[in-house]
Design goal:
The protein contains ten helices and 15 strands. By secondary structure, the chain is α+β, with helices and mostly antiparallel strands. A hairpin with a 4-residue loop joins strand 9 and strand 10. It is elongated.
Amino acid sequence: MQLRYSFRVYPSTGQRTALARAFGCARVVFNDALRVREQARAAGLPFVPSAELSKQLTLAKKTPERAWLNEVSSVVLQQSLRDLDAAYRNFFDGLRGKRPTMGPPRFKSRKDTRQAIRFTANAGWKITTGGKLRLPKVGDVAVKWSRSLPSAPSTVTVVKDSAGRYFASFVVETDPEMLPATDNVVGIDVGLTHFAILSDGTKIDSPRFLRRAEKKLKKAQQDLSRKAKGSKNRAKARIKVARAHARTADARREFHHQLSTKIIRENQAVAVEDLAVKGLARTRMAKSVYDAGWSTFTAMLEYKAALYGRTFHRIGRFEPTSQVCSACGVKDGPKPLSLRVWTCGACGTVLDRDINAAVNIAKAAGLAVSACGARVRPVLVPAQREETGTPPEAPAGDHRQAGGNLRPLAERMSIR
């Protein structure tokens, strides 16, 4: 399987200038190719293929208006055309229903705070014996190696983020690392008060990184708003705001990585619920939903399960996990969010809402999870008057239980 390893790089002043030139050339090539296709579409002409765009790029490099494209690696420009093809492919797949709907490709702006270029193997880049990254027409860039690469990388993408930091992202082929088998399985229910609730009763508190950093972010944003537009001080203030947000995002990502790795290592199978995050983000809880980062966390669980030989399940979002008793399986309808503990009307079990949902998620995925470890508490339910004896005049099947549900007496006895 393919994995991506990202490392921080520290280019010198001259190398930053060379990278900025490469970012600009890649952006211009992307916009020129997009303009050609948009003009053909407006004129009712067929879709311009990639081979024709590549020929037009070669001719454009020989003109005085685009001669400066020769100052950067030709692979960077060709990969920019591949990025445009990928954008169109995703757009068309969305129209066909093969993936979530997304808009058509848009023109890139030189004011975009995030820039990226990609070098493939035929570009001639390499990692030197001194541990530096040698990029064509850029030079040897210092890299902060936090870990070793498992195999020789096929491509490298140089990224400049909104905080002005540079990263080198390598794509490598790696074999799955099979962990020792275990009998543990777990269902995970995510939330806002607790980030994750496991079917074994474990509750992981939500770190709320954005909420904790709001005071500093607010001050940095206020300082930015007071700076004159177009001034150097405003540019410096914008970098401070971006770095504050980057620190928050880095802390959240680190938390996701540590928790997902721990869960995958300790359990043979993991089950999660497919949540409608976009729908929840349109409510008053939008900031907290985005601060939690559920989608990123579940994506980490999925790829780490494939990497370490574990099983990953994702159940449907319409599964009534909060409405079903995990002890007896009786569904007694939806409940308000304020109700955190409830008693099953059929078996009398006292259930924690979140742990009960986590157990039901595991059961819906086909995992053999017992509700015994889910902090459920059975209580004594007094026998109803009609349960003490069946009157002769009562019709068969007219036995009622507490809560008004109609269930045969024999079935209720088997449940208990």
